[in-house]
Amino acid sequence: MERRWKTRPRVTTSRLDPTAYDASPFAISMHPNIDEFTEHGQIVVGYMEPVGAVAIATEGRQTIAMLRRRKDETFKQLLARLDTAIASATVDDVYVDEVNLPHS
């Protein structure tokens, strides 16, 4: 008679579980302007046809920044540029729109 192996309960971690550093209340955000902005505004990162990958920051009906992901740009670099764009919009009233480029 062949021996049957008993199955053990699997312990899996979710990919959505934050790391210990991220879950810490003392963690310092790498993007402080995004961190502060999301308390009263909205950030959207996704794919928009025909533009491609974009990162958009809005506050109510006002768009603060619309960034297009550059060729060979990492997601972290896109978020860093969005953080800088939010800072320039809130401090200097300079709004960035890379999506709706004027036609030549």
What would you note in describing this structure?
This protein is an alpha+beta fold. It has a domain at 30-91. Helix content is 27%, strand content 23%. The chain is built from three helices and four strands, in the order H-H-E-E-E-H-E. A four-stranded mixed beta sheet has the order 1-2-3-4, with helices on one face. A hairpin with a 2-residue loop joins strand 2 (52-59) and strand 3 (62-68). The protein is elongated and about 75 Å long. The chain starts with 19 loop residues before the first helix and ends in a 7-residue tail after the last strand.
Keywords:
alpha+beta, elongated
Q: How are the secondary structure elements laid out?
A:
Blueprint: H1 20-23, H2 32-37, E1 42-48, E2 52-59, E3 62-68, H3 75-92, E4 96-97
Q: Could you say which overall geometry the principal axes of the C-alpha atoms support? A: elongated
User: What is the structural class?
Assistant: alpha+beta
Number of helices: 3
Biggest sheet details = 4 strands, mixed
Low-confidence stretches: none
Whole-number mean pLDDT? 83
Q: Rg to the nearest angstrom?
A: 21 Å
Strand % is 15-25%
As laid out across the biggest beta sheet, the strand order is 1-2-3-4
Distance between the termini: 80 Å
- Elements, N to C (H/E): HHEEEHE
Fraction of helical residues: 25-40%
User: Using DSSP, what is the number of strands?
Assistant: 4
